[in-house]
Amino acid sequence: MKLEICNVSKTFREKTAVNVFSMELQAGECVGLIGPNGAGKSTLIKMIANVMNTDQGEVRLGGQSISHMKREIGYLPQYPNFFSWMSAEETLRFMGKLSGIGEAALVKEIPAILEKVGLERESRSKVSTFSGGMKQRLGIAQALLHKPAFVIMDEPVSALDPIGRREVLNLLQEIKKETTILLSTHILNDAQEICERFVIMKQGEKIADTTIAELLSQDTEQAVRLEITPKDLPWVEEVVRKLPYVLDVEAIGNRVKIKMEQIHQNKADLLQRALEHDVDLIRFEAEGKDALEDIFLKMVVGA
To answer: Which long-range contacts (CB under 8 A, 24 or more apart) does 169-177 make?
Structure first.
């Protein structure tokens, strides 16, 4: 089913969390909703899931208002809450009944979905004994239990340790083969791993709707890229900007991009000057393209 978000806005008191936002999601897509903390992602996600009403605009799924299509939506909030005294099986039975699934269907579907998320051996274990990754997998199970056409996940791995994150990302790779996913995150590497398309938010607005290839193709200029320690940042202003062959300098944190004339000749001179000033070089890369993270930072930070 096609998801249509049409000019939705949401304001809390005097703060506009989402401002006239529009996008479409085709059936079978896995799209990453990307943006820094505070960009409005969670608010938008809640409006899409019909957990929160819009101030203006409309969300449609399959051509109908989202309020009439809740049966087709699976929703994983950023922090799923379960009753700690329930087992995994009891949790899914409780959630399933709230979704209107009959007992006969639950008897069949609960073991299948627990197996899908890798919790079949923990079906009778109490949620209080689960790790963060296991709770997140249980959250994914409840989102998929009623076999929705469209699944929304709000920051599904941001609070997990590396092991839990890997478990969940591997699971998402399998789920995306079967359903449409909108994944909200501020961790670009996670989205890059499972999403084909990115919608980037900043201060409640959509600033890009793109793919990895399109993002990387934006950077066509040849330059030297440095990563240095914070103590060495004054060297950039005091020395680098004054070099006659330097055309421009872009700095984001301790990452520096230096555009220059005749890069083949001058990159060695730049490196020599860094060594003479005892600059602690974490990375020195000539003529490469910006990393995806660097491009994203420039877009959302406004550098």
So the answer is: 169/193, 169/194, 171/117, 171/118, 171/137, 171/140, 172/140, 174/116, 175/140, 175/144, 175/151, 176/30
Q: What is the pLDDT of residues 152-169, one digit of tens each?
A: 998 888 778 888 888 888
C-alpha 77/C-alpha 98 separation (Å) is 16
pLDDT-based confidence at 303, cuts 50/70/90? very low
Taking the C-alpha atoms of residue 275 and residue 298, their distance in angstroms, rounded to an integer, is 28
- Whether the pTM exceeds 0.85: the reply is no
- CATH code matching the domain that covers 3-216, chosen among 3.40.50.300, 3.40.50.970, 3.50.50.60, 3.90.1640.10: 3.40.50.300
